[in-house]
Amino acid sequence: MRHKNLGKMQCPIARSLERVGEWWSILIIRDALHGLTRFDQFQESLGIAPNMLTRRLAALVKAGMLERRRYSDRPPRYEYVLTERGRDFRSVIIAMTAWGNRHFAPEGASVLLLNARTGKPADPVFVDRNSKRPLADTEFLVAPGPAASDRTAAKLAASDWGASRRLPAARGIRKSTA
Amino acid sequence: MRHKNLGKMQCPIARSLERVGEWWSILIIRDALHGLTRFDQFQESLGIAPNMLTRRLAALVKAGMLERRRYSDRPPRYEYVLTERGRDFRSVIIAMTAWGNRHFAPEGASVLLLNARTGKPADPVFVDRNSKRPLADTEFLVAPGPAASDRTAAKLAASDWGASRRLPAARGIRKSTA
DNA sequence: CCAGTAACTTGCATAATGCAAGTTACTGGT
DNA sequence: ACCAGTAACTTGCATTATGCAAGTTACTGG
Predict the structure, then answer these.
(1) CA separation, residue A166 to residues A32, A154, A163, B38, B122 (Å)
(2) Residues 17-46 of A, Cβ under 7 A from nucleic strand C
(3) Considering only the top CATH level, what class is B12-88?
């Protein structure tokens, strides 16, 4: 079934899901970040059906997440290595790992992120690169960006994320269509 | 089709995907974080078929992401509000937003995260809460946690994320099964 | 030269999804 | 009291994706 629009949506989340929203995609990227590159490594790790894996890998290559690279000529063999875009996805993986550990690991975490120097578990929090302030603070809010359509702007105008005051940078709202 | 195991996996990512891995789930949570609570608000915002929305909302309630709460007795009407767990998912949404903006917004961002004081766009990066160091540094690595099985530990032992040295905290590897 | 294996691809039954239409239970106007 | 309008779902059916088993191609090792 046509998986609905998504690609045409303006939302960065929707566009992200276009690329990695399929069931296995995120787990494949997780494994790729863990250093796996070969078809059979992924298959072994995930217990995924080979045809599914073929499709998902092809989709990830098409989405620019992985690069398919020949590592043997006779027989032709390929490996799948993360692109810059794929490696950049690491922050999403970190966020999901932290969230998963907080909420779905009653028996204790089975995957930790460690600080290699201290050997202590790292506790990942988002900060603004410039102000260094944690994004959990109420002083952050979403706003329509320069490329926002009227509809997107109208939706975000009603947003609840942070304060919903009007801000200098939060322009683009012209009329309410939603 | 039974969407494979996932729940039985130890990986926090897999467990997270169990709850929010369905196509629409993340977009619904995004909208909930934007302040939407009613069935028809979600439907309007997403353009989702009502039966799909019914299922996804029910699944999210069951997963403990949303709470279904009656706001009218005659006629019985319900609204869906985020639980603590659902609100905590915000960091994942932030990560995806940032990643999506970086890679799939050639015409410029349409959704921004703003610092409400300066009015400037925020650039979210992960840091370790304790050391305050960005997690992009090579000094961070994944390791099996206290609850890791042999198989999980073996997989992570070969990991490539950071250095793959053995660390005091990274115990649990007894034999290699993978 | 033949068995064994890595790395896929193909086919088919089955299960999930999207859409349109139907249902239930009000509210508001006359 | 009656009828249109609307919110919030649910049902049914055609379409599409998934998982599994089996097949294919191309080596390698003895």
Answers:
(1) 42, 12, 9, 24, 16
(2) 38-40
(3) mainly alpha
What are the domain boundaries of chain A? 12-88, 90-124, 126-178
Chain D positions with an atom below 7 A of a protein C-beta are 7-12, 14-22, 25-28
How far is the C-alpha of B98 from the C-alpha of B139, rounded, in Å? 23
List CB contacts of B162: < 8 A, sequence separation 6 or more. A116, B138, B139, B140, B141, B142
Confidence of residue A133 (pLDDT cuts 50, 70, 90): confident
Cβ-defined contact of B30 to A11 (cutoff 8 Å)? yes
pLDDT reported for residue A85:
92
Measure Cα distances from B25 to A151, B86, B104 in Å.
21, 11, 20
Nearest residue (Cα to C1') for C11? Answer: A51
Residues of B in contact with A108 (CB under 8 A): 145-147
Cα distances from A64 to residues A43, A57, B33, in angstroms, run 21, 11, 29
A122: nearest CB among B19, B128, B149: B128
Which chain A residues contact residue B80 at CB under 8 A?
none
Supply the mean pLDDT for chain A. Answer: 77
pLDDT at A5 exceeding the cut of 70? no
Q: What is the pLDDT of residues A64-93, one digit of tens each?
A: 888 888 888 777 888 999 999 999 998 999
Q: Measured in angstroms, what separates residue B2's CA from nucleotide D18's C1'?
A: 9
